[in-house]
Amino acid sequence: MSAHELITDHLDLWTGAVTQKRSGGRGNNGKIELTGIKKLRELILELAVRGKLVEQDPNDEPASMLLERIAEEKARLVKEGKIKKPKKLPEAALNDLPAPLPRGWVAVTLSHLGVFGGGKTPSKSKDEFWNGDIPWVTPKDMKFAEITDTEDHVTDAATASGGLELLPQSAVLFVVRSGILRRIFPTAITRTQCTINQDLKALQLFKPNMARYIQIMSWGFEGFILTNLTKTGTTVESLKFSDFASQAFPLPPLDEQHRIVEKVDELMALCDRLEQQVGDQLEAHEVLVDTLLDALTRSADAAKVGENWARIAEHFDTLFTTEASIDKLKQAILQLAVMGRLVEQDPNDEPACVLLERIAEEKARLVKEGKIKRTKKLSDVSEDEMPFDLPTGWAWTHFESIVDPKFTISYGVLVPGPDTENGVPFVRVADLSVRNPSEYPEKTISHEVDKKFSKTRLHGGEILLCVVGSIGKLGIAPSSWKGANIARAICRIMPTKLVSKNYILMLLQTEFMQDRFGKDTRTLAQPTLNIGLIRSATTPLPPYDEQQRIIEKVDELIALCDQLKARLGEAGETRTHLAEAVVEQAVS
Prior knowledge:
Oligomer: single chain
Strand order of the largest sheet: 4-11-8-9-6
Helix content: 40-55%
Largest sheet: 5 strands, mixed
Number of helices: 19
Radius of gyration: 32 Å
Strand content: 5-15%
């Protein structure tokens, strides 16, 4: 079976992986990229540079003769003074090759194929160097396979006296310093005269018609390059350039290079079509899910929800086939819960207005006993603040009214200082988790710092909400965190015992509340949510007994969603194993 047949006969493996990612580069122009098709692209490139994508032709001029003609071209350019005479290069080391040599191929370093050059940033203080007509390439421009224009431009003066070299068409550009080298190794071909900055290297080939193959080769051996030829543990990832320039790679005969380029372009176009087709299907699927869930959340009462839910449940296996659709289902469940449409109301329940009166009475008692200070009473929730109608027995209130008045909503430690041996455990945003918090936070603070923020010292069981950076991220303080303190980026919420803590936690996870927090966020150095806005947030409150029934029903339905997601993951793993088997068959 040919590589082409092996790829096309297993298209279902690649198009079945439907996790969506936004991506740019490699010629896909930022379309939705599916993880399965991304793997298919990687397989095509890997087969190409290993000599397994097209048949070898014994009539091709061997690559060894191509190297002789390249050496002759190099000598001519030196003789004509067009390039400096370089140092004699050592022969490529066969034992360092990232893949075996097919018949007719040779081992070669990129330094044998052309001349490497660097770039720079012209002085920003000299206006005469900037806003000209010459493209100036930086890593942010390396999102596409070819460079035809750039975000920034320089003038002729920058190349004449600013130390910038003007590159011709068909130079191959490599990113050699950028955080993007953690994930990919961007390569582009110049299709216009341009210059580059210091984070790139340019290879001007002695045979410019090899540029597209050299680009494919760099992509095909991307994993090898990122693993073996980049510096790690530095502030910014960078290529070990001298090692890269002297690294041996397999090089096919020129005619085979052209056949490889043609086949890669053909198969990448197939990937583009598959991507568009599956992307269209996913978008249509997303619209369908959104429409049905919107109808569900607009159900007038719990009885209507039950009817609409039954219709949806008949098609679970076709509707909820992506993680995104399952997450939307979860949000619909939470939204129905806080709108009072998930469970039936019981006229025998104590109304929420009576519950609020008892909460107010408890607060008044604490004020009278001197245990808390009197605070300004919030005004009643106006009709303009009510985003939807509530069932009989429910009430609109402000979030502050359902918080334990002995523990007001508060920020944590402003300046924690260094870790302290035998210090006080210190909770940061990274420690927050609703389901699986760690036994103890990793960081500690001094007892002196902790004393200054005694009011945010934890007792265990509090709800913790991120208010700086990752706005809305939630966690529960386990009992093992008793005595710990919290960071300034976190606020502590201790619900009153007269309201279900699980109901409040569920409420805070809804889009209704999360969107409110997002709208109330102001941006300083980082997005920041003022706790005064949390205290005044409009909050739907059901009777206490209904809170319990809601939580029971939500837990039941969220468990169903988790089962759907687990089955999805198992199917994805099976598909991945099959795809890996196909890849192994292809490259072995």
